[in-house]
Amino acid sequence: MKLLLMYLGLLNPSTDSTKTELLNEVVITASRSANQEFQTPNNIKILNKKYLKTYASRTTPEALIGINGVFVQKTNHGGGSPFVRGLTGNQTLLMVDGIRLSNSTFRYGPNQYFNTIDPFSISKIEVLKGGGSVQYGSDALGGTIQIFTAEPEFNTKWKGNFLGRIATQGMEQTARGEINYGGEKLAVSASFGYRNFGDLVGGKLTGRQSPSGYDEQMGNFKAKLKLGKGILVLANQYFEAKDVPVYHKVVLENFAINEFQLQRRNLSYAKFNQKNNSKIFNEVSLIGSLQMTYEGRNSQKNGSTRLIQETDKVYTKGLTTNIFSEFSEKWTVNSGIEIYHDLVRSSKVDRPASITSSEAPKNLRGLYPDNSTFLNYSLYSLHQFIQNHWQFSAGLRYNGFSIIVPDETIGKTNLTPQTLVKNFSISYLIGSKSNIYASYNAGFRTPNVDDLGTLGIVDFRYELPTNNLKPEKSNNYEIGYKFRSNRFSAATAFYYSDLRDLIARVKVPNQVINTYSVYRKENIEKAYIKGIEAEFEALMSKDLKTYGGISYTYGQNITKNEPMRRIPPLNGRLGLEFRKNSFFIRPELLFASKQERLAQGDKDDNRIGKNGTAAWQIVNIYGGYEYKWLNINLSAQNLTNKDYRTHGSGINGVGRSLWLTLHFEI
Q: Out of 108, 131, 215, 320, which residue is the most buried by the measure of CB atoms under 10 Å away?
């Protein structure tokens, strides 16, 4: 027993040199201020720079594959939608550098927007499970995922780096360059990358899945300036993906062409942060942002001479003020104001598919009513109290909206919903190694332009607009335990989410348009989601560690007395990592059980089928070596060449393949 206790670090913890990283990271998303993850009363997952470098993931969504409590679904090769505690799309909030990525056209179910973040620009990803509405507002029913992009550093002079990546069977060719300058008061970084993805090649019976390949390019600029006691950050992020096929539409449905002709995002922001010798205004942060998202879609039915071209543009202005107050060593507060405004421009053109045709194109109503607007304004205050081994957190947010949707078919819609949400948590630190906690988080999602204004084909339905919806709401309860010693760390959480006034598509009786059944959205459903998450990390020696995690989610639609749609199956991973000097190797097993608990909507979805999704297990190996100015990373994916598909996806996973990344530093 004594040897076991020594191994776990419960006896004589005399050094920190072997401490694990799993539960000892600084986290910001949970309370909008820096805290040790181990001490927070939430189940949070952090992907730091070392982790991201180890996996060298192809895209930002794929960086979350295998993360405990997160399940990534891929409708197409150019997408990837993370499920957090059974929810995704507009029910999970996405953020980048403290700014909302989610906007008023984010749709229910999986989407591709998380893919518009350059994976090579990321320094950290934080996943807050089951919370975020009080901290950040609408859409955080399932949780909040926040990206933090890399910051240029002062006093580093000129530096540069170049990254290249290739994959077997022509699945990827990537080139990216970056230059950095760090002076005493000014630091600047700029990068540009181009990527070509060939068709995704699946397992032994799947083979090449065509069409699924596409191209993308991205550029980033960030400057930091010291201004007196404060720091000003000016940044621009640009992303563009071209001709991204929706694979299952072409293969399984009656389409000769179905693609995202262009997916573009451009974010510019200015952030000013200043620390002061003041209890009330201890730290003040201001963020002003301008963001534009562009989505162009092309579709053509088999045998048709007509090409449908749709375009949606969303222009978002944002302003955030956050004040951190430290009234005493035991009481700290984050308070602020947030305002976001969306302008939606939407259009559709029906034109001859042949460029030689003299027939004039027809301008039609877009997917959304043109010139729709969405105003989101809020006040919030988050409090933390520490008393001996006890820690208490409580928060409140008032959120108001003004939504104007000028639809021609049902008239102008003008909604002004208002919501007041709260959270509360309590935790108890047992010595320095154990933390037991309980938390409550109220969540909400206000109806957006996609809910109110959609007119046209969505998945396998034809959807009509509506003008009378109210916010979706949730009550999220969680109890958890965290343990951390020099050689072992573990965390487990049990959660229950009560969902009310869910917005669902309701079939309109006896109506069919273009062979598609007709639906309209209504607030009609109640549901619940419950589950358990557990993970561990153990140092077996100075150079060798083992790790693993497992997650189970159960969702039930109370209104329909059936399972909730797209609930992930039991899933997890188990692995080893050996690191010595500049070398590492990390073999791991990823697995998911079969999913046969299906809603009727799942059974009607041609990506899933009536018998559900089969179980799968795949083995990957990651390895790398650093030599002076050169970093080599090699990933061997799906060693057994298994045919598999993550539940709800529209394309199979990658088969046996090699991915080589070379990173040169100058």
A: 131
Q: Quick one: how far is CA 589 from the chain centroid?
A: 23
- The two tokens of residue 549 are 């995690």
Q: How far is CA 468 from the centre of its chain?
A: 29
Rounded Cα distance between 650 and 652, Å, is 7
Rounded CA separation 199/244 (Å):
11
pLDDT (tens digit, 9 = 90+) per residue, 257-300? Answer: 999 999 999 999 999 999 999 999 999 999 999 999 999 999 99
Distance, in Å, from the CA atom of 554 to the CA atom of 326, rounded to the nearest integer, reads 41
CB within 8 Å of 45: residues ≥ 6 apart:
67, 68, 69, 70, 126, 127, 129
Q: Is pLDDT at 416 greater than 90 in this prediction?
A: yes
Alpha-carbon distances, residue 420 vs 135, 379, 399, 510, 643 (angstroms): 12, 10, 6, 40, 47
Whole-angstrom distance, CA of residue 567 vs CA of residue 595: 8
211 upstream amide cis, omega within 30 of 0 = yes
Distance, CA of 516 to CA of 242 (rounded, Å): 28
Q: Which residues of 350-359 are buried (b: 16+ CB within 10 A; e: fewer)?
A: ebeeeeeeee
Phi, psi of 500, rounded to the nearest 5 degrees? -135, 155
pLDDT above 70 as % of the chain:
96
Using DSSP bridges, classify how beta strands 331-352 and 93-96 pair: parallel, antiparallel or unpaired.
unpaired
53 and 622 Cβ atoms separated by less than 8 Å: no
Q: Which pLDDT score, from 0 to 100, does residue 23 have?
A: 54
